[in-house]
Amino acid sequence: MATVTKNEAITRTEWVERRGLALEQPVIRVEDVHKYYDLGENKVHALRGVSVEIAGGEFVAIMGASGSGKSTFMNLLGCLDKPSSGRYLLEGTDVSQLDKKALAAIRNRKLGFVFQGFNLLSRTTALENVELPTLYARLPKEERLQRARESLELVGLGDRMEHFPSQLSGGQQQRVAIARALVNRPSILLADEPTGNLDSRTSVEIMQIFQTLNEGGLTLVLVTHEPDIARFAKRTIVFRDGKIRRDELVKDRPRAAEMLKTLPRAED
Amino acid sequence: MDLISILRIAMRALSRNKMRSALTMLGIIIGVGAVIAMVGVGQGASKQVQDQISAMGSNMLFVSSGTVNRGGLRLGWGQTKTLVYDDMKAIVQQAPAVKEAAPGSATTAQVVFGSDNWFTNVQGTEPQYFDIRSWPMQEGVSFTASDVTSAADVAVIGATVRQNLFGAEDAIGQTVRISKLPFKVVGVLSAKGQSAAMGQDQDDVIFVPITTLQKKLTGEPWLRYIVVSAVSKDATYAAQQEITGLLRDRHRIRQGQDDDFMVRNLADVAQLADQSSRVMTMLLASIAGVSLIVGGIGIMNIMLVSVTERTREIGVRMAIGATEEDVQRQFLIEAVVLSLMGGAAGIFFGVGSSLIISKLLGWAVLVSPLAIVAAVIFSAGVGVFFGFYPARKAARLDPIEALRFE
């Protein structure tokens, strides 16, 4: 199982407590999944039989050229889409046949999303942005605020809670987005090109947060086309033509925290 | 999601485009304002008609001499010579539903005072006439029963006549000439305004004792009309029946023959006038209602634009766990907030313009609480109705497509 050592023992305990025995089985289990898109005349076969297992505490980078099926796969993992055939078990539950409402609830509680374009609501403070998923989870007000604050502190933005996205740098905005993804304490964090809009130093900063979260026991799945970014993960899965071409563990994985020391600080 | 959070989100979304929200609301503001003002004007008019009729005496009946058929030529009402003073006496004595009655006859004459003269209506009657019509004196007193007995040359003049002959001068005690005969003015009637039923100026009139009119001015021994008051408002119909029976009997009209007189019940006239002003109110309100619908279409239009603009936001909300119902509710509430705020502003606009209209027309404009409540409910309804389609559209978005939307 994932590393239980290191310094984030408290967070780790929390995860174990919450998920109990579920930790022992794969968090994600995809069995021979196909996905077709019917675009009138021509059928697009986006996924052609994908099977994969991702255990709790893994940190997976998904790579592949555009049109390789990696985005489709991400949408399936994120319960934004359903497979045309095959099964997708999330923490042992088959989610491929659930209705829209149930899928929304899973996205809300079990999954956290981080996007390339941050996708924060403008003219809405960082705190309120982070609070949003707890609103849809219908948590009581005090708990919503408490969780949102904790979440922002976790990504190091405890002093920026009342800032609007326009008052934050790209890296800070992405950290708000990560805090938002974490606020409902999901089992998995899904990140779609999270560093695509960021410079190299800020990208490494984001990867540092991901590595820390992963060490705390959070399962992470990250889509990227940058090999430099994928190196920070523990495992890479490469898609091509709707199939998994390579699935391997990362050797000589760099520690983002160490790398940051060597990188020059940004001018601002 | 709790209501306060939903409202806060809606307010924030609307305040993002303040100008646009304000312009969208304008449609509802005008619609609600117009409904309130028009209903106010209509009800004010209705109230005025009611007041005039009750000032005329709501339990009053009017008996006029009838029409005759002379070899196929039918003359108008007031042409027969069969209605006489004894008929009036009989009505008072024999009809139990009748309280009082006063005879009436009329002519027109040139009235002269000093260098001023005025062509007006001269009515002959008895003093109880003013009670029956609940028409008090503004100045002086009415002529008396003994003036009637002695056929005295005294007159009570209407406000219009007073204005035209005397202007600012004192009228009481002055002598006017009616068809060259001198009459002493003893009283001036308070102004009654136009009659509700006919639109005539009721104040353009001079009253003299009936005996004086009959003997010195017209020479006609018969009556043109009799005004009657019933014992109560509810007794007017019974009084009408009794008078009709009594007069047919007295005039020896056989069964199957037409009456040579006519009894009009002012309650009927009042009802008719009320009905017509009610129809008018409905008409005005429905025209104003159309603008409310136009305002609603404006809301729908803007909400559709807003849904398109915020496609990405909708995608994000769905990705982090908003259900279709959540998204639909959010947009629906935005539309309702928009229309309710418009409705609230519309109430001020409506009440304000009602006040201005009443100032301009010198006319009581009634702002009814019912119209305000109805306007608020209706504007919320407009929000729900016209907000539903855009909200549905937002809720039906595919989150993947929505997230990809640029």
Structure notes:
The complex is a heterodimer of chains A (268) and B (406). Chain A has a domain at 9-16 and 57-80 and 100-253: Rossmann fold, CATH 3.40.50.300. Chain A contains nine helices and ten strands. Chain A has helices at 9-19, 70-77, 100-109, 126-136, 141-154, 170-182, 200-215, 227-230, 256-262; strands spanning 28-39, 42-54, 59-64, 85-90, 93-94, 111-114, 188-192, 219-223, 235-240, 243-249. Mean pLDDT of chain A is 86; it is low at 1-13 and 19-23. Chain B is of the alpha+beta class. Chain A binds chain B through residues 75, 78, 80-81, 100-101, 104-105, 107-109, 113, 115, 119, 121-124, 132-133, 135-138, 141, 180-181, 184, and chain B through 1-2, 5, 12, 16, 312-313, 315-326, 399-400, 403.
What would the keywords be for this entry?
heterodimer, A: 268 residues, alpha/beta, Rossmann fold, six-stranded mixed sheet, disordered N terminus, B: 406 residues, alpha+beta, 2 domains, six-stranded mixed beta barrel, two-stranded antiparallel sheet, 13 helices
Instruction: Name the chain pair whose interface involves the most residues.
Output: A-B, 28 and 22 residues
Main sheet of chain B: which strands, in order across? 4-5-10-7-9-8
Unreliable runs of chain B, pLDDT <50, ≥5 residues?
Answer: none
- What is the count of β-strands of chain B? 12
Largest sheet of chain B, in brief, is: 6 strands, mixed, barrel
Number of domains of chain B: 2
Helix content of chain A: 25-40%
Structural class of chain B comes to alpha+beta
CATH superfamily of the domain at 9-16 and 57-80 and 100-253 in chain A: P-loop containing nucleotide triphosphate hydrolases
**Assembly level:** heterodimer
Q: What's the rounded overall pLDDT mean of chain B?
A: 86
CATH architecture of the domain at 9-16 and 57-80 and 100-253 in chain A: 3-Layer(aba) Sandwich
Number of helices of chain A: 9
Determine the structural class of chain A based on helices, strands and strand pairing: alpha/beta
